[in-house]
Structure formats: structure tokens, C-alpha cells
Amino acid sequence: MFLPTPWSDALRLFTRNLALAAGTASLLLLAACGRGSDATGSAGTDPGITDTTVKIGTSQPLSGPLAAIGEATVAAAQAYFAHVNAQGGVKMADGKTRKIEYLYYDDAYDPAKSVQNYQRLVHQDEVFAVFHPLGTGPNQAIMARANADKVPHLFTHAGGAQFSDRAKNPWTIGWGPTPDSEGEAYGKYLAAQNKPITVAVLRQNDDLGQGYLNGLEQGIAGSQVEIVKIATYGRTDSTVDSQISSLAGTKADVLFMAVVLPPLMISGIKHAGTLGWSPDIYMANNTSDITGVLKVGKLTDLRTLYSASFIKAADDPQWKDDPGVAQYLDRIKSFPKALGNLVNGEIAYGEAQTMVAALQQTKAPTRQALMDAVHSLKGDSISDVLLPGVTLDSTDPTAPPVHGHVVQHFDGESWVAREGGDE
Amino acid sequence: MTRVAQEGWRGGLAKLTARRTTRWVLGAVAAAVLVAIPFNASPYTNLQLALVIALAVSLRGMDVLTGHAGQVTLGQSAFFGIGAYSGGYGFAHGWPAPLSFLLAVVLCVIAGVIVAIPAVRLRGFAFGVITLALPVVMAPLAIRLDWLTGGPVGLAVTTVQAPAWSGLADDQWQYLLVLAVGAVMFLLAHNLLAGRVGRALTLIRTSEIAASSVGIPVQRYKVLAFTVAAAYGGVGGWLYLTAVHYIGVDSLALTLSISMLVALVVGGVRSPLGCVIGAAFYILVPNITDKATPGRSALFFGVALLIVLFVVPSGLSGALRAGWSRLLASPRPATPAAAPPSAEQHASA
After folding, report:
1. Can you list the domains of chain A with their CATH numbers?
2. Where, by residue number, does the polypeptide cross the bilayer (chain B) (predicted)?
């Protein structure tokens, strides 16, 4: 091979001290191996829990584009734990009452930072369990380590089915239903109409968007409902107008907006309107909240909006006298960042309630005992922000604890439940 | 510059540090400390130190191109990503570690040469903008090639594991591996820059016209510097993956490239120590500030950056050097021969 002068020069220079370097490196490694017996061993008792406190920690995006969601998630969990601690703490099944210490670090939605936060929480702060990290990537990165370390990785604030697969990752469990099951709820609802319906789909170009689509396809299998066109967008896209235009060409009866970014959800729906296309629009639950999406986007006049939910949205007037929602709104008063994203805040509140319920049933101060309790959670009293008809049951080893979606129609003020939904 | 012997402890210290044996002893002590750290530190500390070394390797490559050859690059995170994905793919498919390491280097060298040959014809801003295209293309490409990269979710893998005979925990072993590879990379860079190549790059930085007038093939040297930077970026990325066990597009945002350039400037260009300090600044400062007020780490990072740039524009390593020579220089005017430059004298008042 032809080597120009600088290259041969470089090669020669590079290799000048190579033998020396290799020698030094291997000497250093040998030295390291000599001290191998000093390697730290694990202690006999489980860290993060004393007779009076139990420490849990999380990693959230507190800076960057998802900061508002991360802050709402932290604030709502803080609100519930503060309430529990104000009552003296959580009375666990071993007879001791412990206060909850809740630690959180910023990962800016960078999974590599989530890993660092995990290491910091588990090996430095020595938390008892890792609680509701946000996002698919961050949880994916944490899951392998948590299962290797046998550290409970509980109630992921991410819906992926992989987080509730007990055979593969026994120390990890999700919370809210998967995107697959949400898509399936829409599919079943449409199929139950028992007439030919055409559906156009706009989804995110990742596993989340694929999950919604898979669920929809499962739900409509064997029915007269037909998917006529699928378009995708990327998480960093600033508009979906061209996708909407191309979908509008199908004149489909239904537009499934499996879009999880509020600005794109709003601009997409508006663009469909400007094209003279007025399908029934099925909005992903993530981005269908009244305050943050419908009111901000001035979509409240539309009567064609549907969404499937599992929580009683705190900003929906129909729940304003509901004791669970009223208590939630009361408790987050001292943690106003929870208002920054009501849906995620309320989900985090439900996760915190589930966490406390799991601790109440933990029979010994060990991580294994906590996992046993987590895996046997069942009952309507665990969280009071779930919609009627939605159940919490963590005994199924292949599904997240929260089961069921209620398909709702927006009537101008409230999301009203429709018959024929899932479960 | 050789320092004139001075009276008192300052002179003694100066003489001592100028001696070859002293440097060897100091180097050996530093190496021993670095090797000893993982045995007393938590897995969290080991992970952080490994990340600092991985990033420092990447910065060292950037330093060859940006610091020595004077070509500002914003593309380093792309090579970092190629290295990390090579490692991720290799580990996910059960390849032996050296194979994926080799793949990381080879891919980055090839990509580096391909990009460098047209890019080096441009100068200044235009060159920087061309390199900016690399990380911009990187993320969507990684999402498209999901069979290779795990798509938007990324790859979570088990990397190098400590062999049973060593009795070490995986994090300790990984730290030592990263340290050893990092040390070799720093030595190689030192070798490269100490001789003719280093001089040629310096001349290209100061005046391309002068360089070509004395017969230095400017373009070829620039391609060389770019390729070295790419290879170092790849090695850094591979080391990073080995420590973190995860690579995804969320970790490879455009801001990573910019942060690398910032870290290099903060640490100080044309200095191996500067690369390490810059990497430590990037990795450790947010973690420290995050302890105080979670979510405000970017703010503190920015403030710290401004302070560094205003107070010590030559970077932290430059500040250390200046501080050291001020310590050695006698404050009395009796020895004007050894007086440091006036700026430092002024600051010491």
C-alpha cells in the first residue's frame, strides 16, 4: 500500500515506544491482579432500610426537552411520600413504621447518565429500591444492572412490555398499561362497531409507536376495520404536516394519532382540519390531557376526539368531586411542579401509592421480601386515581400491574367513557 | 525552556522536577495510585473514573486535530458513536472484546479518511461546519439501522467481565482495562506529537503558507490529524461502552460534540493533562452540582465554564502550569533571569 510521508512517519513514531507501553500496561495489570483478594464483598444485610427509614431513588429528566415531565413526576411522588411521612411513615408488614426517603437525580433523558445515577443511588447512596425512572431507553439501560445486582427496579415510568417480563428480568416491573394494550383497546372498540371502517395511522418511528400499531392490529384482527395507510415521524421532528397531508389523501374514517409529543399532536390535528379532512381522531393517552393539549391547542371545539385512558384526569371537571382526585390536587399544592404535566404527575402519584402499598406488605427488611410483596399486589384500594373498570393486579408475570383502558370521547368539557371499550 | 538554577527551596524544587528520574518516580506513583483506586472505591466511582478516561481519550484525539493542527472540529461525537456502537454490536453478538475494539478503530479510520479527504480542502469555519454534519447525520442514521444499533432504544449489553482467577468485580476489571488502553493511547499520542509530525502540525496551525513553502504536504498532514482524531474518538467510544454497558441515540446528541469541544477548551488545548481535566470537568461537575440541586446541573456547568474562560483562558491545565512556574519563580527581583512573563508576575501581586 502506498504510504505518503506523513503516514509512514506517523506509523514509525506511533510504534516507537509501543513495546514499552505494552510492558507497562501488562505490569500494571499484573500488579492489579495481585491485589485481587481485596475485592469488596457484599454485606450480609440489605442496604437502604433501617428500623425507622427506607430509602428509594429515581433518575428523571430534570433538564432538557423533557424536564417538565420529569419535574412533574418527581413532584407528585414527593407529594404523596410527604403525606405518608406526615402520618408517621409507612407501617410495613414486619411491624415497623418507616419514613420514606426519596432521592432523585437528573439524567436529561440520556440513558448513559441514568446508568451513572443508578450506580450512584445503589452503590453510593445505597437505596433499598430504584423507583419509577422515566423513559424506555433509561429503563432499558438500568434494567440489566438492577437484575444483575438484584436490586428492585419498580414501577417504571415507561410502558414497554419488556419491563414486565418476570421470567427474563425478575427484579423489574412496569406500572401503567403497555402501548400495545392501549392500541388494542382502540382496535377492539372500532371492531365492536361492526361496520367497515378505514384507519390511517401516524406513529413515532420507534418501539413505542410500533407498540401502538401492533396493539391496534391485534384489536381489529378478523373485523371489518382496515388500516389503509401508516406514516411515521421522528422524535426530533418539528412538524408532521407532510405526513398528515399524505394520510389525508386516503380520506380514512379514523385517524389514529399515536403521537406522544404534544406540539406535534396539536399541529397534526389542526393540519388535518385545514385540509378539509375530518376523521374521528384517536389520540394517544399520553398526549390527550385537557389542559396541556386540548386547551393549549384550542381543540376543545372538536367533537371527533377519542382517547383511551386508565386514570381519572385531574383537570377533567367530571372528577372534581372524586375523593381520590380531590386529595391528589390538595396534596400537590405544596409541590406545584406537579402541575407542569398533570397526566404524568398523576401517573407518578399512582406509582407512589403502589410503592407505599408494596412496602406495607413487605414482611422483612430485605429486597427479596419487597419483590415478593410487589408481585402479590392486588386490589382496588391501592391507588385511588385509576378509572372505574381499570384494575391493579401484579400477579400476572407478563404484564404491568395496571390493567385495562377505557375508551373515552371528548364532549367539549370532559372525557366521557364509551361503551364497548376494552374490559 | 531550561530554567536557571536558583537558590533556596524553589531552585531545589525546580532542579528536582527537571530531573528525569524524578519524572519517572512521579509517573510511577501516579500509575500506582490510578491502579489502586478501584480496590477502595465504589462501583459508582469506578464507573465515573472510567468515563473520564474514555472521554479523555476522545479529547486527546480532538486535541491532535484542533489543538495541534488548529482545525476546529464538531464531529468527534460521531466517531465516539461509531466506536461505541461497534463495541455494542460486538458484545451483543458474543465477539471477543479485541475484535470489536479493532472494528471500532478500523471503522473510524475508514470513516475519518473518507470525510477528511474532501473536508481538509476547506478552512476555518467551513471545515467546522462540514464536521458538524457528522453528528447531525449520526442520530437519524442510527435510528434507521435498527438491526445494527438497536434503533431508538439502543443496545444494552454485557461487556468485558472480570476473569474468575482475578478475583475482581466487573467494574474494577473494566476500570483497569479502560485505564490500560487509555494509557497506551496517551503514550501513542505523545510519541506522534513529539517528533516531526508534531512540528509539522504546529507549523500548519500557525501558517499553512509557511508550512507548504518549506515542503510540508499540508493536506496530507491534515488528513492524518483528522484520521487520528477519528480513531481516538472510536477508541474513546468503545471504552465508554465498556464502562456504561449501553449505547443509544439519546447519548449521542449534537450537544455531545459541542460539549467535547468545550471540555477540551476548559481543560486546555495541546496538553495531555488538559484532556484529562476537561473530561473530568465534563463528567464530574454535573454530578457534583446535581447533588446540590438536581436539574440545575447544566446551569452550574455553564457558570463554571464562563468562570474558567474569563479567569484562565488557557484552560485549567494552563492555569496549573502557570501556577507551578509562579511557585518556582522567586518573587524577589534579585533573580530577574528566571522571572516569568509579566502577565503572571502581575497576577501574583
Report:
1. 6-178+320-403 (3.40.50.2300), 179-311+406-417 (3.40.50.2300)
2. 21-41, 98-117, 124-143, 173-193, 223-241, 261-285, 297-316
